[in-house]
Design goal:
The chain is of the alpha/beta class. It has helices at about 15-25, 45-50, 65-75, 95-105, 155-165, 175-190, 200-225, 235-240, 245-265, 290-300, 355-365; strands spanning about 5-10, 30-35, 55, 80-85, 110-115, 130-135, 145-150, 270-275, 280-285, 345. The strands form two sheets. Strands 1-7-6-5-4-2-3 form a seven-stranded mixed beta sheet, sandwiched between helices. The termini are far apart.
Length: about 375
């Protein structure tokens, strides 16, 4: 998966990969991690389980760490590490990229969560971070797994290498693998099912609900799987075969981005694509009413986006696979000065249903804020 001089390993899920990072940081005396205010709560749990503190840093219009807020946090928290999430595939540029480089030069450890940018990167470890992690099942058709890559000459090599050796003595999680494979089979059957006649549509709806049921069970199993274990053999085989990576998907993603950007241009509610060009998904930000309408329409059609982050105290959109595909930041964020960004993601792995997806977007954009 990776090229160049890197050390790498495949873990059972993203939290496990971050758990290895958290333990390595703690062994090096790091006690605080700076994290984005807009995030999935699963990103901070591994650090909290290691007894580390986290400090939320505000995000900018691209939903990445806001440079001035990050600079202030770095000044206030000597020795703190930085967890930078490439949210919806957006990459650090300009002032943020420069600040992260300076932070590393002064001895701060920079960890990048590249889950959303996985398909945009020819290499995970590209010299801009000490460690890169990415959950695989969000964008690739695999039942489990996450990748962690680090520099063998970097500050965390010794503790990470030790943690991986310990992990690799364990068995992969058979329940997570089984549920993940069942979910992939159910999704495939749903997509292929005929839907012309009323009876066919009713059968297809039952299949859609079955996808949601299996996804919820899979999500619970993954939530409970905190101890690092290797990725399953099924995931390794699929990765070796290049699952989910194709020039066709990239081309479809570009066309989808262009179509949705054209549809939202000048929208009265300010709806906009927040991740132009990313292969993994099209992320559409807008009013909460619009986002909930579109997320619900996509869920009812079985056109599930790869990630859903509800706001503090929010609930998952009915019909989305998994009871809580991505829990948002905790209650401490609820009193924040700015509202939680309302975002819905559109899948880029269903080119045969592009017209149906764009029709759902068009209908939802007509909803008044």
């Amino acid at each position: 998966m990776l090229g160049g001089t890197t050390a790498e390993a495949l873990t059972g899920n993203g939290k496990q990969a971050l758990g290895l990072v958290a333990r390595a940081l703690r062994s090096r005396g790091v006690r605080t991690v700076l994290v984005p205010r807009y995030r999935c709560e699963a990103m901070v749990l591994p650090f909290e389980l290691e007894g580390m503190g986290t400090r939320a840093v505000d995000v900018g219009p691209d939903l990445l760490l806001e440079p001035r807020a990050l600079a202030a946090a770095l000044a206030d928290e000597p020795g703190a590490a930085v967890l930078h999430c490439e949210t919806y595939g957006n990459r650090a540029r300009g002032d943020l990229a420069d600040l992260l480089v300076r932070a590393r030069r002064t001895g701060r450890v920079v960890v990048v969560d590249a889950t959303h940018s996985l398909l945009d990167r020819p290499r995970l470890l590209d010299g801009a971070a000490d460690v890169v992690v990415a959950s695989l099942r969000k964008l690739l058709p695999v039942p489990d797994g996450a990748v962690i890559a680090w520099d063998p000459a970097g500050p965390l090599d010794t503790p990470l290498s030790a943690g991986v050796r310990e992990m690799e003595r364990r068995e992969a999680d058979a329940r997570v693998e089984s549920l993940g494979l069942a979910l992939l089979d159910a999704e495939r059957a749903f997509v292929r099912a005929p839907r012309a006649a009323p009876a066919e549509r009713a059968a297809r709806e039952r299949m859609r609900r079955r996808v949601c049921e299996i996804a919820a069970q899979h999500e619970v199993a993954i939530e409970q799987a905190l101890t690092p274990v290797p990725a399953s053999a099924s995931t390794v085989r699929r990765l070796t075969g290049g699952a989910g990576r194709s020039a066709g998907r990239a081309a479809h993603a570009r066309a989808l981005h262009e179509a949705v950007a054209a549809m939202t241009a000048g929208h009265p509610a300010g709806a906009r694509v927040v991740n132009p060009g990313s292969v993994g998904c099209v992320a559409l930000q807008g009013s909460r009413l619009l986002v909930e309408e579109l997320a619900g329409a996509l869920a009812r059609a079985g056109l599930w986006g790869p990630v859903s982050w509800d706001g503090p105290g929010g609930s998952a959109v009915p019909g989305v696979p998994g009871a809580a595909p991505g829990k948002a930041a905790g209650a401490e964020e609820a009193a924040g000065a700015r509202p939680w960004p309302a975002v819905v993601t559109l899948p880029t792995d269903a080119p045969e249903r592009a017209d149906e997806l764009l029709d759902a977007v068009a209908r939802s954009l007509r909803v008044r804020p």
